[in-house]
Amino acid sequence: MVQIAVMGYGVVGSGVVEVLQKNKDKIAKKAGQPIEIRRILDIRKFPGSPLADRFTDNFEEILNDTEIKIVVETIGGLDPAYDYVRRCLLSGKSVVTSNKELVAEKGGELLAIAREKGLNFLFEASVGGGIPIIRPLDQCLAANQVSEIAGILNGTTNFVLTKMIRDGMPFEKALALAQEIGYAERDPSDDITGLDACRKICILASLAFGRHVYPGQVHTEGIQNITLDDVRYASAFGGVIKLIGRAAKRGDGRLDCMVAPMILPASSRLAEVNDVFNGIMVRGDAIGEVVFYGQGAGKLPTASAVVADVIDEVKHINSPKLFGWGPGEDGYVSDHLQNPVSAMIRLKCGDTKAVRDEIEAGLGGCERVKVSNAPADELALVTPKTEEFRINQALKSVSGAKLLSLIRIADL
Amino acid sequence: MVQIAVMGYGVVGSGVVEVLQKNKDKIAKKAGQPIEIRRILDIRKFPGSPLADRFTDNFEEILNDTEIKIVVETIGGLDPAYDYVRRCLLSGKSVVTSNKELVAEKGGELLAIAREKGLNFLFEASVGGGIPIIRPLDQCLAANQVSEIAGILNGTTNFVLTKMIRDGMPFEKALALAQEIGYAERDPSDDITGLDACRKICILASLAFGRHVYPGQVHTEGIQNITLDDVRYASAFGGVIKLIGRAAKRGDGRLDCMVAPMILPASSRLAEVNDVFNGIMVRGDAIGEVVFYGQGAGKLPTASAVVADVIDEVKHINSPKLFGWGPGEDGYVSDHLQNPVSAMIRLKCGDTKAVRDEIEAGLGGCERVKVSNAPADELALVTPKTEEFRINQALKSVSGAKLLSLIRIADL
């Protein structure tokens, strides 16, 4: 019998308790012993719950309870989650978390404490909800040199883009619908601005390439400026717009890492990932291309990933897993403007021919993309692959044109 | 430093040696210590190899070498692999294998020996080549009650079907092409008849549902009788034909498990898995639907999965993983004729209206499927979902009609 505590009884935390109760026997068999929820931390009371007597609003009760060997953190955010998790580890308790902000910002430090203390700190649920990705990346693909990871890592924005692409619904309306259905929070800014996807690609990149990548190091753009016109032009080019988090190893050992809406060719495995689903592609030297697909969020998928980690920690209670990454470093993520990229640029201009000639003078041959019924003063070009700052230079030097949008083309 | 032996220096075995050498440093870091190849078993000599001095054709040299803690089996087939693996385990060596026939036929027994001896017996590479599936199924999805697993588990047949569907290439020509490219072996019968996919679904079903499923228990049909006419009718119905291995838990605790060509709706995630790729879908109570996609075979993908298992065994050399399933049982897999299914039946008949009426009298409303330029005496019907024996009964009782094909419709 292993005693655990759950901190935070929100959507994921209550799901963890539900899964642990519902699949109790299977879980005990998998873990080799029963798992007992000894304490649940929440400021609210749940008098009607069969576990009502386990609730506490006092973190110290968990911290000082030496019977509790594993603590699940599903509070979210950094404060107080970071302090609580750190103190749990320092006091000898292994931790499981679903908190991507915590792992993306503080994972390196917390993993180091866990290692030093002979404990486990696991976070399968922090990326891809119920999709197994952290463990496969660490274990199954351990024999590979991973060269690139890219994915649709945020279900909310993927739902909004799917509605825009499939139903021609404008951004604001699609977002309102997502909020109505419960796919987007009342304040959806972490999703829409790409920050959520950024945290997730940081976690994946840290694990795959062995060094902590901080969200602040990663150039991040959201989908808030994507219009139905962008969608139509992408379609005319034979692609779809998806919010992609991507990290690739460069020749100089640094990372090319970015979050932005990108145009995927319709033939890409990730182009077919729609609605709230997530898809994550891993490229490795031995494995070729592997794709993981499933629900990237949701109460029970996420909770099931948390519980899988709890089971793993019970199995490794006296033999911590070798797991983690080294410290981060300034300059480890390269300046995105220095990386080669092809992009679709859309411009409003008086003389489309003159503007095109001017841009081509700077960048070389561009492909023009046309849609039916476009205004005569609109020009859409796909640039050749070149360092991104050159595209910006070419755009700056052009006269008599206003940039409507610049969307990178993904090679995925 | 952990000493290992590799038995069988064919495609996969030589790939294992290659990956271990090429990614030596990364692997040592992951495993916590270097891995040294002490012996390679093959009846051939490789005098030019840098490891020439490690080769032996004498299994006893590996068996009796107490320095060797882990043995990789990539010989394939049951004889002598089964005997060798069994004796390795009995003598205290952990084993990694890529041999699906061995695991499907003898996995339960070998896992039991490993458990008794405090050793590990791992086989990630036996299903899906380099796609992580065994470990995610065991670990990441541990908190789920899995209800169904289904997949495209054989790359050779998927390549052949893709050529038939996309290029209208007849079966024989597509198979010849697969052999020419090296996607199919000179004797492709294990692939074409579905036996290879059958072994793989047996392994997945054993792991997911906890009881050994033997290939002999599973109704298995291959793709050898699929014609371009079938492909066209499937397309007219809005689907594609794929060779599917599928296992689902029935209400009575028994399994519905089968390998057969099935028509998938074009909207299915598995319908988009083409060429030599594999795709595996897992449905669980908490996780919903998760899909794994990648190269299901090939030297390096498969070798990388073997090496990942070796790393895991090094990490668990003194703490064997809880892993495996219970013994099999007669009658555990239900008679497929008793399970409800919908199927597309194609018939040659004099009076299509009379035949259709006769069949509908037995089965209820069927949907007629038509293709352009079909002979007037051809009738294709999609039956309602009913126990399969009822479809056979209805077909038997029909007069003046010859069955051309019966292909099940998959609900995936």
Identify the notable features of this structure and list them briefly.
six-stranded parallel β-sheet; Dihydrodipicolinate Reductase, domain 2; 412 residues; alpha/beta; elongated; eleven-stranded mixed β-sheet; Rossmann fold; 3 domains; Alpha-Beta Plaits; homodimer; 17 strands
What do these coordinates show?
Chain A is of the alpha/beta class. The first copy, chain A, has 3 domains: 2-129 and 299-315, NAD(P)-binding Rossmann-like Domain (Rossmann fold); 135-295, Dihydrodipicolinate Reductase, domain 2, CATH 3.30.360.10; 336-409, Alpha-Beta Plaits, CATH 3.30.70. Chain A contains 14 helices and 17 strands. In chain A, the strands form 2 sheets. In chain A, strands 7, 8, 9, 10, 11, 12, 13, 14, 15, 16 and 17 form an 11-stranded mixed beta sheet that branches. A 6-stranded parallel beta sheet of chain A has the order 3-2-1-4-5-6, with helices on both faces. In chain A, helix 4 links the parallel strand 4 and strand 5 (94-97). In chain A, helix 5 (100-117) runs parallel beside helix 10 (195-209), helix 7 (155-167) packs across helix 8 (171-181) and helix 13 (352-363) runs antiparallel to helix 14. The longest helix of chain A is centred in the N-terminal third of the chain and has 18 residues, at 100-117. The radius of gyration of chain A is 23 Å and the shape is elongated. The mean pLDDT of chain A is 95. The interface between A and B is large, with 54 and 55 residues.
